Amino acid sequence: MSRALWANGLRGWEDILGLGAGKLADITFQRGSRTQRIGPTRAEKIIRQARCLIKGTFEKKSALALPQGYSKGDRPIVVFDIENNIFDELGLQTDVYLWGLMVVASDEVQHQELILSPPGEEGDADGWRQFLMTMSKIFKSYGDIPVVHYGSHEKAWVSNYISRYGDIRRVGQRILNNLWNMYSAITASVVLPVPSYSLKQVEVYVGFKRSQEEYGGSWSIVRYNQYLEATDEEEAESILNKIRAYNREDLLATYSVYRWLEEHCC
Fold this sequence. Notes:
Blueprint: H1 2-7, H2 13-19, H3 21-26, E1 28-31, E2 34-37, H4 39-55, E3 59-60, E4 77-84, E5 96-106, E6 109-116, H5 123-142, E7 147-149, H6 153-165, H7 171-178, E8 179-181, H8 182-189, E9 190-191, H9 199-205, H10 217-229, H11 233-265
Parallel strand pairs: 4-7, 7-8
Antiparallel strand pairs: 1-2, 3-9, 4-5, 5-6
């Protein structure tokens, strides 16, 4: 679609906004072997995004739907974020190498559990079992609380690991039943002045600041591989601390976005 916009002389968000939804809807673009119109629904979505980016403000589309049964300020919740391997060439024996959890009993009381899959052939399965045991304890303490995550990643991997290694006392299914995808809630209810709706973009908009200059999913995977190959115990622990810090801040960033949504969209 971007090629079609460029071909029609639209070089930036100002050009798109100036064209208007009516004319934008008539522009055609290639999707595979088919030619499609942008159409009125997609055009209006693009116009709203352009308007927010130019003004630097957000627009509400509808009331934000918080986790079922929850209202603004309700706690506890558990924030969930994983780190997984996306580079087959590294030859890692583990897919999800870190299962990150943060229980938020109140804004003042937060507890993190960062479960790192141990090295070796059994590390992948061991990490999964430790994750299920940790979540079982959380459910025992707090009941069926919302498991807040960002994007489809966590749901897909929990389902994958249930199929791969089984589901101890159906804790995995209980996790799936309580998942709340914040990305879906955002895109359904609000337009933000961000170039993409990745967590890394949205967290900056809501004012979250990280402590590490280098971070990101790819960075974390490379670091994990360095940890596995480290021959010095002190070096290995130093690498692990950086990986933990990255995931810890992913959890905090996710919660910062959750609080911003409560404050501005409920």
